[in-house]
Amino acid sequence: MLKGKSIVVTGGGSGLGAAASKAFAREGAKIAVLDLDEAAAKHTANEIMAEGGEAIFQKVNVVDKKSVFLAGDIIAEQFGGIDVWMNCAGVSKILPFLDCTEEIWDFMLDINLKGGFFCCQSAVTHMLKSNGGVIINLSSQSGKKAGSHYQAYCASKFGVIGLTQSIALEFAKQGIRANAICPGVVQTPMWDKQVHEYAKKRNLQPEEVMPYFCKTIPMGRVASYKNFTDMAIFLASDKSEYMTGQALNLTGGSIMF
């Protein structure tokens, strides 16, 4: 469905970003893997090439506008343009509201929201030159419904949806579509790092966290990587050509609005 398309994925070195990068490549796309961790980005690109796909990688700090725009320019020149830009770079922290420092707040908002803003600006700049393109932003179920101990994360992910809708409205007539994916729980490396924080919040043992989620999700399980990549492929492809400004839930029924 994506044969010949050039796709940029931030946060492509691990987790959902790496999964999306490899899934896009299997659909025939050329992939630019961007990540602050250069070794991780290279690893994802090498995995794609080992399967016969086409990929490049770059170390990029999404909070550094110059770094983001330089990467966009290099990719557009090498690939002959940018068709799809997916923003998966992100961070999360679970802690009580009064324990959230200004430094933690700024860190979360910078990476999750300002970084996405810079990336979208770079994407739009190149997509306007080629009369269209697709932006896919990663929000969260926490961007639809707030939860305690997620103050900065919720603020950033609600913001991602607003950013996505604003871009969709402004550039619809120029053929640029922007949508967001709002996953619930997916057992990624980021979740593994914060499972102790969530366990503390719920007064659980770390090994009890995932079974707890499965009990609270109507479909009885957390999302798989394939659930996520199937939605990403749909949004990146022409199958969703009349869809823009949407924030699609991927929560197993936990969120229905």
Automatic annotation (TrEMBL):
Name the PANTHER family for this protein. SHORT-CHAIN DEHYDROGENASES/REDUCTASES FAMILY MEMBER (PTHR42760), SORBITOL-6-PHOSPHATE 2-DEHYDROGENASE (PTHR42760:SF105)
Superkingdom, according to UniProt? Bacteria
Q: Name one GO molecular function term.
A: oxidoreductase activity, acting on the CH-OH group of donors, NAD or NADP as acceptor
**Gene Ontology biological process:** bile acid metabolic process
Organism, per UniProt? Propionispora hippei DSM 15287
Question: What InterPro entries does this protein map onto?
Answer: NAD(P)-bd_dom_sf, Sc_DH/Rdtase_CS, SDR_fam
Segments forming a coiled coil: none
Family to which this protein belongs = Belongs to the short-chain dehydrogenases/reductases (SDR) family.
Keyword terms of this UniProt record: Oxidoreductase
The name of this protein is NAD(P)-dependent dehydrogenase, short-chain alcohol dehydrogenase family
**Stored CDD domains:** SDR_c
Give a Pfam family name: adh_short_C2
